[in-house]
Amino acid sequence: MNQNELAAKQKKRRQILTIIVLIVVFILFVIPFLLVLINVFKTKGDITSSPLALIGEHGFTMKNFPEAMEKMDFWNVFKNSAFITFSATILTILFSAMASFVIVRNNWKACTLFFALMIASMVIPFQVLMVPLVSVYGGIFGVLGSRITLIFMHVGFSVSMATFMFHGAIHSNIPLELEEAALIDGCSRWQTFWKIVFPLLKPTVATVAIIDAMAFWNDYLLPSLVLTDKAIYTIPIATQAFYGTYST
After folding, report:
1. Which of 10, 147, 201, 216 is deepest in the core (most CB within 10 A)?
2. How many angstroms separate the CA atoms of 237 and 171, rounded?
3. Which of 26, 44, 61 is the last residue before a domain boundary?
4. Does the pLDDT at position 96 exceed 60?
């Protein structure tokens, strides 16, 4: 056996070993999901007595889904999450795009300072602001317990990153000559932004929308501080409350 054949055999053994390890890891990751999928169609007694059985003693049941949705008030919390996520995402995109346009196209010191402060604010962890946030908005202004308050807080915490992204897109990808041509044709600055600049920002708009919508939809910490009434809970808070109530 020559050296090339020996190297080829060793390479094949390594590949087989790698595949075996990956299969084992995959199975370990999939097992919890399979257990959830199997037990979701059982009664509570069957889950306790035979969690590994494909079908429990009382057979296949679908009543867990409507019962859980009713106790969790699913459609109401879904509506709350959708309203908050959609509103906060739209406002973040609009405010950030307009602010970026003003900052990029005006060489004012105030714009430079404002942009620098927004970038600097991105390094401040949210946990640092938790206690002052609740103290000021809850104790002084008394505006906690409102979806509108949560929406504007989401916008406030996300607008810096969005402005940074729109700033780069406008500065790098949109020639000033397009805006000058629009102004010559009689467009105002407002019309130039909405008819020329904003349509060219579609890739950035899509990126910001996806990032922020996912963050707003999945956020637990900020809504748990702001939303104090069960009627306006979002899905993460309602899920945690449901789990804490019925998991034992």
Report:
1. 216
2. 40
3. 61
4. yes
- Do 36 and 155 belong to one domain? no
Question: What is the biggest distance separating any 2 CA atoms in the chain, rounded to whole angstroms?
Answer: 84
- Tokens in use for 105? 């196209």
Do residue 37 and residue 113 come from a single domain? no
- Stated pTM of the model: 0.81
Phi/psi at 51 (5° precision)? -70, -20
Give the whole-angstrom CA distance, residue 128 versus residue 58. Answer: 51
CA 190 to chain centre: 31
What CA–CA distances, in Å, run from 78 to 75, 88, 109, 232?
5, 15, 44, 10
Q: What are phi and psi of 55, to 5 degrees?
A: -130, 130
Which helix (H) or strand (E) covers residue 236, if one does? helix 235-246
Average pLDDT estimate for 178-186: 91
pLDDT, tens digit, 9 for 90 and up, residues 56-68: 777 778 888 888 8
